[in-house]
Amino acid sequence: MEKVLVQVRVPAINETYDMFIPQTMLAYEVLELMKKVINNLTKGRFEVKETGILCFADSGSIVNINLSVTELGIHNGSKLMLI
Q1: What is the pTM of this model?
Q2: Over the Cα atoms of the chain, what is R_g?
């Protein structure tokens, strides 16, 4: 399984994380995975809620959660933001 290394900014806790995500994974799965991982890394400081938005950090455009990482054009070095 091919993975890409992305940078994820989380403004709610003013932190940034580097994460490997599978290219074939759908964005809604990536979003759920990121929320759980960041919650664990912050020992609960980042609360896992049902809602959450994943967007491209450079443009601010919201990620279509129904597309795969590859279909979205996410690649090594992409910068995302979890709101």
Answers
A1: 0.90
A2: 12
